[in-house]
Specification:
Length: 175
Amino acid sequence: MYIFAVSGLSKTGKTTVVEAMVRSYSTKGFNVATIKNSACKNLTVENSGADTARHREAGAVATILRSPDITAIVRKKQLSLEELLIGIDYDIVILEGFGALDIPKIVTAASFVDADTKYTPNTFAFSGKLAASAVSYRSLPVINCFEDTDRLTELALDMAWRDPFMIAGRSGGVY
């Protein structure tokens, strides 16, 4: 399993970069999972009144929706990164967000100041809005996810970590 992150400030292109990479990997036959980290509270993944929402409102700590084309698991607590990574089996896992986690990552940014905000020693590339105005920063490539998707996806696989226990250990309880 290859694991890396795409981190950046809000509205700098994180989701766009993740979408481009998932699309590219998927067309090449990889099984890709994504884990999105959000600081927003009271997010909903289901409509009020839906059966699973009603189950949770009644006190269920977890609900599982199973249908012919999707299975969704909703837990009424935040799981640690270790709980999310250990026991899953995908070719590639892309973490979106996780800015404080120092693992191999692509930092999306709109400016060099933004880039510095999320930069860690394990940053291996920059992307997002910054790619419209720069080709390198801090001696690292700035890669446009639309124009050079293959370069970005290949670099990510070269730099990704393969050990979920190592990444979970790096989270230090923050995630």
